[in-house]
Design brief:
The complex is a heterodimer of chains A (about 525) and B (about 140). Chain A is about 50% helix and about 25% strand. With about 525 residues, chain A is of the alpha+beta class. Chain A folds into 3 domains: about 120 residues, Four Helix Bundle (Hemerythrin (Met), subunit A), CATH 1.20.120.160; about 120 residues, Histidine kinase-like ATPase, C-terminal domain (Heat Shock Protein 90, 2-Layer Sandwich); about 120 residues, SH3 type barrels (Roll). With about 140 residues, chain B is mainly beta. The termini of chain B are far apart. The chains are: A alpha+beta (about 525), B mainly beta (about 140). Chains A and B meet through helix 6, helix 17, strand 16 and strand 17 of A and strand 4 and strand 5 of B.
Chain lengths: ~525, ~140
C-alpha cells in the first residue's frame, strides 16, 4: 500500500468528490435523462475508483466499479433513471461517507459487500425483466480531459499570506521614501512591484475564496435525507445572492447551517404539514454577513421552553416569572434545554443549539431567533465581515493609536480655531446638526478637557455623527490581521491592523460607538 | 521503565530562573515599540508585530509578583493560532529532563525541575491564560 502519509490527501479529495457526486445526483433527480450529467457522474466515480486503487482500498474500488456499471447502463439508456435508481445512488453516497469515516478513524474500509451486491442485483433484475442489456465493459469516459487538483492546508496559505503582508508593509514604507526622493525611475519600479504584489494577494485570496453555492451544494441532499428519515416532505430553497467567501469561514458556517437545517426539518416541520418549506439565505447587510434559516413550520412554544428550563433547574420558578422575552430566547440556546429533552416542537428545537451558539460566538458573531407559534421560525446569524487591506483615518487618543476605515468617513473638517467639545452633545456645521461621539466615554478612558483641531463627519446608515479629533491625524493603508483573544473582549475594537511601519493599530468598531 | 524527556526553555526574571515548555514557535525575541491596547488588566502590556503575526505582550513579572529589570525581551510562543510574548529579563538555556517534581508548599507554580541544587519552577501556558482570563478549548 502507498504510504499512509497520502491518506489525508486521499480523504480530503474523496470528501470533495462525494460533495460533487451528491450535487450531481440531485441534478440528475431533476433532469433524469441528462446525458451530460451522467457523463460527469461517471467521470467522477472513475476518478474516485482510481484514487481508491492507488491507496489499495480494494473493496472501495469494487463499489466504484459497480456504480460505474449502473451509470454506464443509464447512459446507454439500458436502465431508467427513476426514484428507485436515485434512492440507490443516494444510499451509495451514504455508504461512501461511512467508508471514508472508517478509513479516517480506523484505517480500514467498512464491509462493502452488501452495497456492491445491491448494484449487481439491481442490474441482474433489469436484465431478467429485459429492461437492460448485459453490462459490457464499455466506457463513456473516452478521452475526456482531466484537470489535476491538489489539496493544500489553510495553514500553508496563511503562511504565504503573512509573508505577503510583510512584503506589502515593506513596499508601503518604500513608497513614501521613493516619493520623497523624487526619482521617477525608482517610482516606476515601485509601481510595477506594487502591482505584482497586488496581483499575488488577489490570486492568493482567490484560492481561498469559493462561491457559497459550491460549498452549500450538498445541503439539498442533507435536507432530503433528514426529511426522508423523518417521513416528511420539505421544499428547500437556497438564496446565496451569488456570494463568495473564504473557505475557512465557509467550512465553519456549514457546520452551523447543517445543525439549523436538521433542527428545522426534524422539529420545525410537522409530518402532517403540506407545502413545508425551508429557506436558507445568506446576504451582506451593512458590513456583516447575515445568514438565516427559516421554516414555515409549527414555531416555538416559548412557555414549554420555560417549563423545561424550570424542570431542568436552569432557572427558578421565581426568576422565570421576571424574565424578559430576550432572556427566554437565551434559554433556547442553553445546553440543558437543547440536550435534555424529548424532542418535539412543542417542547423545543432539539439538539445542538447550544453548540451552534458557541460556534457563532467563536466566529465573533451573534445569533437570534424569531418565531411565532403556528407560523414558523427564523434563526438569524450575523457575522462580521473580514477586512483585508483598507485605507483608514488614523489618530491618537491618549497613548492609543486608533483607526477608523475611510469607508465610514464622509469628510474631515479642519476647524478654523481649536474647540472644546467636552460639554457639547451636538455640533452644528452649516445647516447640519451632528451628534458628537464621546470616544473617551465609549472606550472607558479617563476624561480630560482637550482642544480639538479636527472633526470627522461619519457616514453610518442614516445617522449624522461627528467625531472630534485633537492631534496626530493621518490617512494610512492598513492590513487587517487576526484579532488576539485579549482584544476580542473589547466591543469597541473591531480588530487589529498593521500600518506601513509594522505597527499594530486598533481598528474601532463603528457599530459600538453609535 | 523509560520515561520520555520533555524540553523546556529557561529564562531569568526578577533574579530567578524559570522554565517554560518548548511548544510551537518558542523563541526569544526583542522589540522596540509596543502598541498599548484598551485592556483594563495590567498583566497585558500591549501588542507587537512579528513575522506576520500579532503578538500579545504579557507582563510576566506582574503575574509572578516579581520585579522585572528589562522591558524589551520576550519569550515568544504560539498557542492555537494566537501568539504570546512573555516579558523576561534574559533568555537562558534549553533544558531536557524526564524528571519534573511537585512542590506542594507552593500555591501557583507547583511543578519544578531540579538543576544541581536549584529548583527551576515551570511556568505553564495554562497558568498564563488563567491569569489573563483567557479560555482555550
Amino acid at each position: 500500500m502507498i504510504s499512509a502519509k497520502y491518506k489525508d490527501l486521499y480523504l480530503s479529495t474523496t470528501r470533495d468528490q462525494l460533495k460533487k457526486l451528491n450535487d450531481l445526483f440531485l441534478y440528475l433527480e431533476k433532469k433524469p435523462g441528462n446525458q451530460n450529467v451522467l457523463e460527469n457522474i461517471f467521470r467522477l466515480v472513475h476518478s474516485m475508483k482510481g484514487a481508491a486503487a492507488t491507496m489499495a482500498y480494494k473493496k472501495t474500488v469494487e463499489l466504484c466499479h459497480a456504480l460505474e456499471n449502473v451509470i454506464d447502463a443509464a447512459y446507454h439508456q439500458d436502465i431508467e433513471i427513476n426514484k428507485k435508481t436515485i434512492d440507490l445512488f443516494f444510499n451509495t453516497t451514504a455508504v461512501f461517507e461511512k467508508n471514508i469515516l472508517s478509513i479516517d478513524k480506523n484505517n480500514k474500509e467498512i464491509d462493502l459487500e452488501s452495497a456492491i451486491a445491491v448494484f449487481r442485483n439491481f442490474l441482474k433484475a433489469k436484465v431478467k425483466t429485459g429492461s437492460a442489456n448485459i453490462v459490457k465493459e464499455k466506457h463513456i469516459l473516452g478521452t475526456l480531459p482531466t484537470v489535476a487538483e491538489i489539496t493544500i492546508s489553510t495553514d500553508k496559505l496563511d503562511k504565504i499570506k503573512n509573508s505577503l503582508d510583510d512584503l506589502l508593509i515593506n513596499i508601503m514604507e518604500a513608497k513614501s521614501i521613493i516619493k520623497n526622493s523624487g526619482q521617477a525611475k525608482l517610482l516606476s519600479i515601485w509601481l510595477s512591484a506594487d502591482k505584482i504584489l497586488g496581483d499575488l494577494r488577489r490570486d492568493l485570496e482567490n484560492i481561498r475564496i469559493l462561491p457559497i453555492n459550491q460549498i452549500f451544494s450538498t445541503l439539498p441532499y442533507l435536507v432530503r435525507e433528514v426529511a426522508r428519515n423523518e417521513g416528511k416532505k420539505v421544499d428547500f430553497v437556497i438564496k446565496d445572492n451569488n456570494l463568495s467567501l473564504d473557505k475557512a469561514i465557509l467550512d465553519e458556517l456549514v457546520e452551523i447551517v447543517i445543525q439549523l437545517l436538521k433542527n428545522a426539518v426534524a422539529h420545525g416541520i410537522s409530518k402532517e404539514q403540506k407545502s413545508a418549506k425551508i429557506v436558507l439565505e445568506i446576504s451582506l447587510v451593512n458590513d456583516s454577513l447575515e445568514l438565516s434559516v427559516s421554516d414555515n413550520g409549527q414555531g416555538i412554544n416559548w412557555p414549554s421552553i420555560m417549563s423545561l428550563a424550570i424542570k431542568n433547574k436552569l432557572v427558578s420558578r421565581a426568576l422565570a416569572k421576571k424574565m424578559s422575552a430576550e432572556e427566554v430566547k437565551d434559554l433556547l440556546f442553553m445546553p440543558g434545554i437543547s440536550r435534555g429533552q424529548n424532542v418535539s416542537t412543542s417542547s423545543g428545537r432539539g439538539i445542538g443549539l447550544s453548540l451552534v451558539k458557541a460556534k457563532v460566538k467563536e466566529l465573533d458573531g451573534e445569533i437570534d431567533v424569531v418565531s411565532k407559534l403556528g407560523k414558523g421560525s427564523t434563526f438569524i446569524i450575523k457575522l462580521p465581515l473580514p477586512l483585508t487591506v483598507f485605507r483608514s483615518l488614523v489618530f491618537r487618543r491618549a497613548e492609543y493609536v486608533l483607526a477608523l476605515p475611510l469607508s465610514y468617513i464622509d469628510q474631515v473638517i479642519k476647524l478654523e480655531e481649536v474647540k472644546d467639545f467636552s460639554k457639547l452633545k451636538f455640533w452644528q456645521q452649516g445647516k447640519s446638526r451632528f451628534k458628537l461621539i464621546d470616544l473617551e466615554k465609549s472606550l472607558g478612558l479617563p476624561h480630560f478637557k482637550a482642544l480639538y483641531k479636527y472633526v470627522a463627519i461619519l457616514k453610518y446608515q442614516d445617522a449624522k455623527l461627528a467625531l472630534p479629533i485633537y492631534s496626530n491625524i493621518s490617512e494610512s493603508e492598513l492590513i487587517m490581521k487576526k484579532t488576539p483573544k485579549v482584544v476580542k473582549n473589547n466591543k469597541h475594537i473591531k480588530g487589529v491592523a498593521i500600518s506601513s511601519q509594522g505597527q499594530p493599530t486598533l481598528v474601532l468598531d463603528i457599530n459600538s460607538l453609535v | 521503565m523509560a520515561t520520555r524527556a520533555t524540553k523546556y526553555i529557561s529564562f531569568y526574571l526578577g533574579g530567578s530562573l524559570y522554565a517554560f515548555p518548548m511548544i510551537e514557535g518558542t523563541q526569544f525575541i526583542s522589540f522596540d515599540k509596543l502598541t498599548p491596547i484598551l485592556h483594563k488588566d495590567p498583566k497585558v502590556k500591549g501588542l507587537i508585530y512579528h513575522n506576520g503575526e500579532i503578538v500579545v505582550i504579557v507582563d510576566t513579572a506582574t503575574i509572578l509578583g516579581v520585579k522585572a529589570k528589562g522591558e524589551h525581551i520576550v519569550l515568544l510562543f504560539a498557542y492555537q493560532g494566537d501568539y504570546y510574548g512573555l516579558l523576561i529579563d534574559e533568555g537562558s538555556d534549553v533544558i531536557k529532563t524526564a524528571s519534573v517534581m511537585t512542590d506542594r508548599q507552593k500555591k501557583d507554580l507547583k511543578k519544578y525541575i531540579r538543576i544541581k541544587k536549584e529548583k527551576i519552577y515551570i511556568l505553564e501556558p495554562s497558568f498564563i491564560f488563567s491569569q489573563l482570563g483567557i479560555n482555550y478549548d
